[in-house]
Amino acid sequence: MRSFDYTKVPTQKITGANGITYAYRDLGNPVGIPLVTLTHLSANLDNWDPEVIDGLAQHQRVITFDYPGVGSSTGKVPTSIQGMAKDAWQFIAALKLTKVNLLGFSMGGMVAQEMLLQQPQTVQRVILAGTGPRGGAGIENVTKISDLALVRALVTFTDIKTTLFFTRTVNGKTSAKQFITRLKRRQQQRDRTISWGAYRRQLSAINRWGRAQPADLSAIRQPVLVINGDHDRMVPTKPNTYDLHQQLANSDLVIYPDAGHGSIFQNGPDFVERANAFLA
Q1: Is 207 in a helix, a strand, or coil?
Q2: At what angle do helices 170-183 and 50-57 cross, to 10 degrees?
Q3: Among candidates 178, 174, 155, 176, which has minimal Cα distance to 164?
Q4: Four-point Cα dihedral 7, 125, 261, 240, nearest 10
Q5: Contact 208/109 with Cβ under 8 angstroms?
Q6: CB of 227 within 8 A of CB of 278?
Q7: Can you tell me the distance from the alpha carbon of 207 to that of 229, in angstroms, rounded to the nearest whole number?
Q8: What angle do CA 207, 184, 81 make, to 5 degrees?
Q9: Which of 46, 47, 77, 116 is 20 to 30 Å from 70 at the Cα level?
Q10: pLDDT of 157 over the 80 cut
Q11: CATH-assigned architecture of domain 12-279
Q12: Dihedral sign, Cα of residue 56, residue 62, residue 66, residue 71
């Protein structure tokens, strides 16, 4: 019997043709096209909001995984977003999936865009959250923003996602506290924290991607749902989220008010409802 509870679903492993062993979790309703999720900078399997994953899993099979060199996956973190996309395709091939939907959050949204450019025929629909286009304004500043937030988190003994993902309003602070609590629900078989070296390699890849020449996204014909909060500090909503929406030929745009980089977690129930309707 398949699990619908992300806090209890077991972690599995599979080895791709590239020799990398990927750690992943697989849950939900095994009908239709599977949803493969692509997570953010420094994240492992435990950084997905369990309430969001559970809500999505009620309507489709949901697969989360660790990038190579992160968490419990083997290998080394690529120094390019394009390399991460190729590794993600190796994981999908190992699972013998011939058609997928993608949910890319933050850095994962960057990886999802490159995956679309590399193998468009394998992708049905895509959700891009808290992200922007290659070469987007301010993306090269993620390293500086992350480093400053990390220092603040260490000094104040708080989770770095509290300030990077959420607004500093009463609503944002309350949502941040609730989100961090949800991330701690899983008690068994928790994933390994990313190493410092792997984290810096990911930052290098984002920085390089942010300075690169923009991609031509107009040829992408798949339906895309573009989502962000109106106050994203990591990947500035203006102009990035709007530019991404405009560059794509077939996209819908959702901007949550009083929300930051982690708007899909701050507005979990609404996001799940929108995502399930879109993917259906």
Answers
A1: helix
A2: 70
A3: 176
A4: 170
A5: no
A6: no
A7: 22
A8: 20
A9: 116
A10: no
A11: 3-Layer(aba) Sandwich (3.40)
A12: positive
Strand, helix or coil for residue 104: strand
Tell me how far apart the alpha carbons of residues 73 and 132 are, in angstroms, rounded to a whole number: 26
The mean per-residue pLDDT over the stretch 217-238 comes to 94
Check if the beta carbon of residue 71 is closer than 8 Å to that of residue 44: yes
Sheet with 251-256: strands ordered across: 12-15, 21-28, 61-65, 35-38, 100-105, 123-129, 224-229, 251-256
Q: Which helix (H) or strand (E) holds 17?
A: none
- At residue 12, the 3 state secondary structure works out as strand
The rounded distance, in Å, linking the Cα atoms of 39 and 44 is 8
Q: Which residue has the tokens 């973190």?
A: 77
Task: Kindly state the helix (H) or strand (E) to which residue 125 belongs, with its residue range.
Answer: strand 123-129
What are 143's two structure tokens?
Answer: 């390293």
Q: Can you tell me which residue has the tokens 């798949």?
A: 222
pLDDT at 69 over 80: yes
Sole residue written with tokens 């709007």: 242
26 HSE (CA, 13 A, CB side):
14
Q: pLDDT by residue (tens digit) across 87-129?
A: 999 999 999 999 999 999 999 999 999 999 999 999 999 999 9
**What is the pTM assigned to this prediction?**
0.95
Question: Between residues 64 and 156, which one has the greater pLDDT?
Answer: 64
The structure tokens listed for 200 are: 């810096």
* H/E stretch holding 13: strand 12-15
Q: Distance between CA atoms of 34 and 39, rounded to whole angstroms?
A: 16
